[in-house]
Amino acid sequence: MKIGVIGTGGVGGYFGANLVRAGFDVTFLARGEHLKAIQNKGLKVKSILGDFEVKNLKATDKITDIKHPDLLLIGLKAWQVKDIRDELKSIMHADSLILPLQNGVLAAEELSEKIEKKNVLGGLCRIISKIESPGVINHFGVTPTIVFGELNKHRTERIIEVQKVFEKAGIDSVISDDIDADLWKKFISICVSGLLAVTKTTYGELRELKETRELMIDVITEVYLLSQKIGVRIGSDFVKKTVSFIDTYPYDSTSSLTRDVWEGKPSEIDYQNGTVVRLGEKYGIDTPINSFIYNSILPSELKARGVDLKTYRG
């Protein structure tokens, strides 16, 4: 199987390196010093599951260099997906599959606006990882897992074949019978990332204090109630399960959104707490804590994107 990894950050770099190690034909999309390091030295993965390196990799900064892939893993930030749809469409063959692994619940929908829906899968991943330095991926929390499925909820031969690829690469994967529900389950938990950014805490620090722990639970509860209004099939005990899962995160860990906000970089805030606010308004669900988080981060987000606050009108 010919695979393209679009975005070689903590997600794409980790999963792509494992696919190379298993012998698959993989081409990586990267940029800058990270790209140069990959082209010259390969990728080094530092992982709580064991370190390894892969060398002599195919890597480029042009999507159009990736010709007729069978599978495209999209590891970019959620806000970057819209910008690459036409280029992705130009390199695909009739049976190419796109598997987006973005945070949020909009990636498959946005891809399907320009690419035939039959070529798009729904997907998410669980991993805490980052680019530590050019050519080096650091996986430092959570057992890496890819959850994916057909948007129409059917179990098809093609997704079974994709799972076999992941199995050969030693990647834990789950075929979802309701990918919408699974996307929302992750979405509910990741909206805590914005709270980390606002409170300037790690996951451990956030859950340590009674006051911030209550805020965390309120964030999760608001998004859960929104999901129920929309009709997503999630059990009534999900808030409790999510809090328990977050309690297992490494004490000093943070999220990519949190780090991006702290470092003054563009973040996924529009696709996390911002999406909650917009859908809350649409479906008549109050989201005061998520609104506070989103509006608190919005000024720095706009500045990171080069927007003049004097002329911004929303």
What would you note in describing this structure?
There is one protein chain. The protein is of the alpha/beta class and 314 residues long. The protein has two domains: 2-177, 3-Layer(aba) Sandwich (Rossmann fold); 183-304, N-(1-d-carboxylethyl)-l-norvaline Dehydrogenase, domain 2 (Orthogonal Bundle), CATH 1.10.1040.10. The chain is built from 13 helices and ten strands. The strands form two sheets. The chain has a five-stranded parallel sheet. Strands 3, 4, 8, 9 and 10 form a five-stranded mixed sheet that branches. Strand 6, helix 3 (81-91) and strand 7 form a beta-alpha-beta unit. The chain is globular and about 50 Å long. The protein starts with a strand and ends in a 10-residue tail after the last helix.
